[in-house]
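Project standup — Tuesday

K.O.: blocked on the structure for the chain from last sprint. Re-posting the sequence here as requested.
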Amino acid sequence: MKKERITEGSEVLLYLTPRRTYLVKVERGKSLHTHKGFVQLDSLIDKEYGTPIASNTGVEFYALDPTLRDYIFKTQRQTQIMYPKDIALIIMFSGIGPGSKVVEAGTGTGALTTAIAHYIKPTGKVYSYEIRPEFIQTAQKNLERAGLEKFVKIKNKDVTQEIDEKNADAVILDLATPWLVVPHAYRALKGSGTIVSFSPTIDQVVKTVEALRENKFIGVETVECLLRGMQVERGKTRPETLMTAHTGYITYARKSTEKIEKRKG
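H.V.: unblocked you, prediction finished:
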C-alpha cells in the first residue's frame, strides 16, 4: 500500500503545469531551484500527497505521488526511451501479470524494464539482457529510484547468441536485430508463450515476421500506434497541432509447440 503522507526519502512529483513537472527526492536541507523560484523540500515532510507548496517567490506547486508514467519519463537517459503508448500495447500483447517470468532485451536505460517490472511484481522476475555496461549502470539506478530493482536481473550478455532462461511467459525485444533472437526466444518460451518486438523501421519488421513464421510461431501480427492529444476549451476544442505519430512498429506472436501436418487428399 502506498503511503498517504510524504516522509524523508520519499520521491515526489512537483507539479507546476502539464509540461513543467519535477521528480525529486525529499531530503532535509535540500531545495529545488526552478525558473519560478526555489522550493524547500524538507517542508514537505509529513504533508499529504496532493498538498500545494509555494516557492520563495510565491508560485504554487503541487506535491504528487509519482505514477509509473512519471518514473518512465523522468528516467536518466542515454538512449531514446519508449513512449507510454507503445509500452502499454507491449504489456497488453505480452499477457504478463503478477508472477510472470519475462525475458527482455535490450535494457537500454530501463524505461520499458521499469514498466515490465511494475506489472510482474510481487512474485515475478524480469531477466533483462544488455551488452553495454554503461547502460546497465543507468538502468539499475532508474529501477532503484522506482523501487523495482529486486524484480529485475540485468545480464551483460548478447541475447542474439543465447537466452539462458526456460519456460518464460514472454520474451520482449527492443533492439536492432530482433530476428536473430527469434530461434532463442522459441526455446526460452513455454508453450503458447508470447514474443513481442518493437522496431522503428519496417525493414526490421519484415525480417522479424519472416523469422517468426519460420520458427513455429502463430498469430503473428504487427501494429502501429498513433497518439493525438486534444486541446479542450469550451467552444474551442480541437486536436492539438502537434501529435506523437510514428515511433515504431509492434510485432507479436504466440509459440506453437507442434507443426500441423498437411492433410492428404
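K.O.: great, moving the ticket to review. The mean pLDDT is 93. The chain has two domains: 11-66, 70-255.
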